[in-house]
Amino acid sequence: MIDMLPSDHRTRRFVQLFVGLALYGLSSALMIRAQLGLDPWDVFHQGLVEHTGLSFGVITIIVGAVVMLGWIPLRQWPGIGTLCNVVLVGVSVDVSLALLPAPSGLPARIAFLAGGIVLCGFATGCYVGAGLGPGPRDGLMTGLVARTGGSIRLVRTGIEIAVLAVGFLLGGSVGVGTLAYALAIGPLVHFFLPLMKITAPEPAPEHVAS
């Protein structure tokens, strides 16, 4: 599919992938700095940080790699975007946390939270729309859907409830931001993904000599 695209479309795919992954890491860092609650997977990541002493980004990379190994029995195969996702999101989180100051006052924390959620929706639209492979957590969901026959909604909800519960028990941050993310991320991705999806151009019609 990628080889069938013009070179400018291929370049855009990779640029959009890298931008999306970098912004996804930044969105996580914004929510972490807001200290108002994280999305379910980041609650899990933060819980592991509390017990290992590793950085948030390193934990994100390790979890992504372990989840991707879980694709094997599900007969899922990663794309180059999947491999980039495992590494670049974690790197971006740590770099962003090093550069972002902690917001002072509730209004600034709310702004960080809202900005992080919206940015996450846009970043997801970017890297998914690039069409170079799903993220490891998305691939786990689609693999389980294919193997169990369950609905995407049911499988996704089950996964996120499970990681949220484990993350909470490990000491991850659950709060109003967790609820805000759960309510907003679906509509945001629904809005951004069609705008960012890269599709192959329609072939030019053949001219028939009269």
From TrEMBL:
Entry's transmembrane regions: 14-34, 54-74, 86-104, 110-133
Q: Which InterPro entries match?
A: YczE/YyaS-like (IPR038750)
Q: Which domain of life is it from?
A: Bacteria
Which one Pfam family would you cite for this protein? DUF6198
Alphabetically sorted, this entry's keywords are: Membrane, Transmembrane, Transmembrane helix
Tell me the protein's name: Membrane protein
Q: Per the UniProt entry, what species is this protein from, by scientific name?
A: Fodinicola feengrottensis
